[in-house]
Every structure is written in C-alpha cells, then in structure tokens.
Amino acid sequence: MPQLFLARFKARWFFWLCMVLIVVGLPVGCAALQHKERELVFMIEPGTASWYHGIPADVQELELKAPSFGVSQNIHAWWWLAEKKDAPAILYLHGSRWNLTGQFFRIEQLHALGFSVLAIDYRGFGESKGQLPSEASVYEDARIAWERLKQLQPDPRKRLIYGHSLGGAVAVDLAAELGRDAQKGDEPIQARGLIVESTFTNLADVASSVASTRTSLPVRWLVSQKFDSIDKIAEIHMPVLIVHGSADQFVSPRFSEELFQAAQEPKNLLMVPGGNHNNSMNLGKQAYGRAIQALLDAKAPAVHASNDAEAPGKQAG
Length: 317
What we know:
It is a single chain. The protein is α/β, with parallel strands linked by helices. The protein has a domain at 60-203 and 230-303: Alpha/Beta hydrolase fold, catalytic domain (Rossmann fold), CATH 3.40.50.1820. Helix content is 37%, strand content 14%. The chain contains ten helices and eight strands. It has helices at residues 3-9, 13-24, 31-42, 100-112, 135-152, 166-183, 203-211, 253-262, 280-283, 285-297; strands spanning 59-64, 75-80, 89-93, 116-120, 159-164, 193-197, 240-245, 267-272. Strands 1-2-4-3-5-6-7-8 form an eight-stranded mixed sheet, with helices on both faces. Helix 4 (100-112) links the parallel strand 3 and strand 4.
C-alpha cells in the first residue's frame, strides 16, 4: 500500500464530519448543512492518484448513461475482462475520497484472482460528470452499473457485488434490493454473492464512535446521509462475505462483526490479522481467495415468497 495513500487518509473524514455537524448545529433539513455534510462524507480528491501509473491496454473504458442524465452527467467505468472469457464478474463499488485511479491496486488484485471486473466512478468522481454525490445518487449509480454488468455477464450465477468502505454500504443497498425483488417472486436472485470490506453498520454509528471521546452531543441525529447497512443486510438472499482488517484504525472491525451477526446464512466473516483499512486483500491474499471461492461454492437460499413451503429443498440462482 503506498504510504501516501495512508498518510492522506489520516485526515479522518468521519471526525471532520462530526465536528462540522456539532459546530454548525443547524437542523438536518438545512440545505447548506446537508451540502457540507456530503462534501465531508465523500471527500472527493480531484485528479489522478499519485501512485497510479495507468491501466493495461486490455481494460475497456465505458460511459454509462441513464435517460435522466441528459448531456451533463455520466458514469465513467472500467471493464477488465478476465483471461477466462466466461469467468465470474464483479461489480466494484469504491468508497469515499479516491476515484478509480486510486482504486486500481485493489481492482488489479481482484482481476489477478481470475475475475472480470466492472468498476465505476460515481457521478462527481474522476471522469464521471455530475454534481456533488449524495447517498441517493450513488445508490442510483450502482443500479445503473448493475444493469450493464448483467449484459457483460449474462449468467446470474457468475455475478458478484463488491464494496469497499463506504462502497460497502452501496453494495449492501444494491444486494438488498435484488433480494427484495427475488422475494417478491418477480425473478430469481440476480447475483451469486456479496463481498464487503472495511465497511460499517451505518454512518451514524461511525460518526458517534468518533465523536464519543470529544462530545456528549447526539451526533447520530444530525447525520442525514444514513448508509444504513445494518437494517438492510438481513434482506440479502445470497451468500455474503464480510472482510475487515483487525488493525483498521479508521473503521472499527466491530462494525463488520455486527453486520455478520445480522446477516443471513450462508455467510462468512474474514478478519485479516494486522490488516488496516486498505491492505486486507493483499495481506490476507490466500485466505481472501479461499473465502471468495467458498462464497461461490455456497448454496444460495431460496427466496421466493410464493414458494416458501418449498424453501428447504430449493436453491435460488
């Protein structure tokens, strides 16, 4: 992990988010406060990460659109096909601060494990045009990217959702929506599994944890960007892998433990000894690879509400 990456991350965006909410002390409904909150949640770094040295020639750059975007918005994406043409494909959803150029080292590691990867920058990040992101807009971007992944990898049994840090909350939201769709009986589950790394229960929990040593004010009630994974993860009807570094100083490993307890089977919690917020995939490479393979091998639960009586003997997806 580049030292610059870790040094710059020490700005502790959760801390500054808490401090602004406390000092300003305005109602959550105030547009100015919400805008400042979003700036501090996403902490967008413009330009190219200093440790980025370009993408391989076989990475295809895509521009994803929705009818509502018009000409002023787009989602910039990378599609990196695995050597095995029909390999499982991962939708990669990054966290705050860094655009795709700052994420390439992790995308490269997933590709090295044999996966095709579709990675996106949310609108407002990198080469994706748009206004300052919000919780709602990044959820929408993930859904648009998912529709493209379905075209790139038509087999639902070979589609995975991956989210790192704040992207873990985006990934949980998407997976929960797919679970709800399947439970309604509208369609089979459309993904093989969910992987989240270095993520949290909800933004209010993290903000409260950071602020608890500095103030007794009810910080959680001032947070308007919820990213509430703990209330959604039980709606995910696919195998779940939760990964966290035991030495993560930015997002406590206990949040992943709480998510694991709330998730349905089949599920797995991989705690990487000595791993920090960014290096668990590299540090725990072998265990990480085995955990993903176990996810792919796991039997997905039956989810169709109309077929509840048949659930014990039925597999979905």
